[in-house]
């Protein structure tokens, strides 16, 4: 058990925000495997201020998702503050508010938002002070090492965030220039967690029990953030949960188990979004459930084309049939 602000967190597994992925359905599905802390997909300050229909969808929070943070991005202090007031007025039931200071996408950076703040540390500190003042919930921040290899300013930014009054900091140990490429570089912040006043969540290449344990050991972070490493791998969350609880290593999911997880996820999507949208989202995320299992290539091609749940179910039957035949071949 650890805490930040007034929030108590029961374990070390954090599900990182991923735009287009960590929807209500994805979060709800993953949570029950042992996620301890969640973030929504990011929403823009202006989207919140104008209360756009799309933004409202991103702000949907399920009753079993707590503790959960809404992630906000924006390049102007005034708008961020306005957005916070609006979120409070709307009564969105989030537990903490995360400010995105790490998004490398040009359309975000162009407006001075996301990782663009890392190039203006003084402005960043002043903005975060105002954000902390405006919010009646704890504020967290998600940052990167710095803009590029010549501008690694993570330690300075962490001190500034702490001075501004944030309650939790997540660090993705790539630079903005790296986007999502190359390896995460936890060594750059060796032992930083020991020196920090607020809990540290470590992000970047958390894709195996050993990598997660190593990331905690190197950085002395309090918790790990699962992002791409958990795509289509609910068992990975369960593995981390169990390992941190008592050192036990759960086996990887068998293909049969993966197909059952995939079907559960698809059902959850349909329940929350209706069949049409659900199948669209499944076409994007579903293939991750088949990654790493032999002979799945043709089925993945079919999965990215399905349009109805009945088609999807038929596809699962075909995969099961091919598995049984293989089992007979091997016999
Ligand atoms: C498709 C995708 C979308 C992402 N969206 C967000 C986002 O909205 N906000 C954010 O702070 N980070 C976002 N991230 C970054 C992740 O939360 C995480 O920090 C990063 O992927 C590094 O972890 P990994 O190497 O384990 O994937 C995104 C990453 C991916 C791959």
Explain the overall architecture.
It is a single chain. This protein has 331 residues and is α/β, with parallel strands linked by helices. The chain folds into 2 domains: 2-246, Aldolase class I (TIM Barrel), CATH 3.20.20; 255-330, Non-ribosomal Peptide Synthetase Peptidyl Carrier Protein, Chain A (Orthogonal Bundle). Helix content is 46%, strand content 14%. The chain contains 15 helices and 10 strands. The chain has helices at 24-31, 45-49, 53-58, 77-90, 106-109, 121-134, 154-164, 192-195, 209-219, 234-246, 255-273, 275-285, 287-290, 297-303, 309-330, and strands at residues 2-4, 7-9, 13-15, 37-44, 68-73, 96-100, 139-144, 168-172, 200-203, 223-226. The protein has an 8-stranded parallel β-barrel, surrounded by 4 helices. Strands 1-2 form a two-stranded antiparallel ribbon. Strand 3, helix 1 and strand 4 form a beta-alpha-beta unit. Helix 1 crosses helix 11 and helix 11 (255-273) runs antiparallel to helix 12. The longest helix is centred in the last third of the chain and has 22 residues, at 309-330. The protein starts with a strand and ends with a helix. Bound molecules: flavin mononucleotide. Flavin mononucleotide binds next to strand 4.
């Amino acid at each position: 058990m650890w805490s930040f602000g007034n929030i108590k967190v029961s374990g070390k597994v954090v599900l990182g925000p991923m735009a287009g992925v960590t929807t209500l359905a994805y979060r709800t599905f993953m949570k029950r495997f042992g996620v301890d802390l969640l973030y929504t997909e990011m929403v823009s300050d202006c989207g919140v201020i104008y209360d756009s229909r799309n933004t409202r969808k991103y702000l949907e929070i399920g009753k079993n998702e707590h503790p959960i943070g809404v992630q906000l991005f924006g390049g102007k202090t005034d708008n961020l503050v306005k957005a916070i007031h609006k979120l409070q007025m709307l009564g969105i039931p989030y537990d903490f508010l995360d400010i995105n200071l790490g998004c490398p996408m040009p359309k975000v950076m162009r407006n001075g938002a996301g990782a663009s703040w890392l190039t203006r540390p003084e402005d960043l500190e002043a903005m975060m002070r105002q954000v902390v003042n405006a919010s009646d919930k704890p504020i967290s921040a998600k940052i990167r090492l710095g803009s590029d290899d010549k501008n690694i300013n993570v330690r300075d930014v962490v001190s500034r965030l702490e001075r501004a009054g944030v309650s939790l900091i997540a660090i993705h140990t790539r630079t903005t220039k790296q986007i999502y490429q190359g390896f995460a570089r936890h060594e750059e912040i060796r032992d930083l967690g020991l020196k920090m006043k607020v809990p540290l969540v470590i992000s970047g290449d958390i894709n195996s029990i050993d990598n997660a344990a190593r990331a905690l050991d190197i950085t002395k972070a309090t918790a790990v953030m699962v992002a791409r490493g958990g795509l289509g791998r609910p068992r990975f969350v369960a593995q981390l949960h169990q390992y941190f609880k008592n050192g036990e290593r759960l086996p990887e999911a068998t293909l049969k188990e993966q197909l059952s997880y995939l079907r559960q996820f698809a059902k959850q999507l349909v329940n929350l979004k209706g069949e049409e949208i659900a199948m669209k989202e499944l076409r994007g995320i579903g293939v991750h459930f088949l990654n790493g299992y032999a002979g799945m290539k043709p089925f993945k091609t079919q999965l990215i084309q399905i349009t109805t749940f009945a088609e999807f179910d038929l596809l699962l039957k075909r995969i099961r049939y091919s598995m049984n035949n293989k089992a007979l071949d091997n016999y």
